Amino acid sequence: MTAPKIAMLGLGSMNGAILAGLLGAGVPAENITATTRTAASAQAKADQYGVQVLAEESTAEANQRAAASADVVFLGVKPPQITGLCAEIKDALKPGAVVASVAAAVTVAMMEQALNPGQPVIRTMPNTPLSVGLGVVGLTPGRSTDQQHTEQVAQLLGASGRVHVLPEEQIDALTGVAGSGPAYAFYLAEHMAAAGVEMGLDPQLAADLAAQTIYGAGKMLVENLGTHDAAQLRRNVTSPNGTTQKAIETFDAADMGSAIRSGAQASSTRAAEITEELSAPQ
Question: Which parts of the sequence are annotated with region: Disordered (predicted)?
């Protein structure tokens, strides 16, 4: 990978996961400058990642300084803070620098309006398995973002997971399936482990069984993409009148499938609602 200069503005869970992926993929630490709010967190993150980290409380114009020499700028603050951060750095940016948000619900148009005209912008929707290099990222380029910009950011994010370039109207659907999706898997593992405890297993053993089973099943899904979908893999382990069939029949009787689809839709709907809230006049 040709290593561009990168600014990571904010080092929360998402930007931290992306940073770990970049370093793991061979991007030189000296090519990356990050920012945090406090001097204590800046020192801790610098020790953790081995990159330069500027603290807003002790370095005047920390975000502008980090962004000024960057080819790609990742905005890793909370959604309500994204447009303010865009306005803060807009005059420090190089004209061709790509500004990529990793915050939910902030649209391309919101960022473009807060930046100088023509600044390349990319909206992303990542999920937390980026932190272990197995994430999913939805990516939508802005009006001034060319194919080279898009491929550059996709390559950088691809160090931590699988990247999908999507039209913006599909980002909320990706949020419902993948953005919130890790919580669905954790929820399933939580209740699998609770069932084990109820049946007499040691809590730690039950948790390990559930976690390893979810992990292994997910790996099987990924490795069989294109040949066997989830439904086929389920059928493969569901013998007629066997133990698994009884469990599936119980799930079907509780209409679990409908509940999962409704939950994903609720997540997607909430993402759209947050966008509306961020768009409302203050």
Answer: 262-282
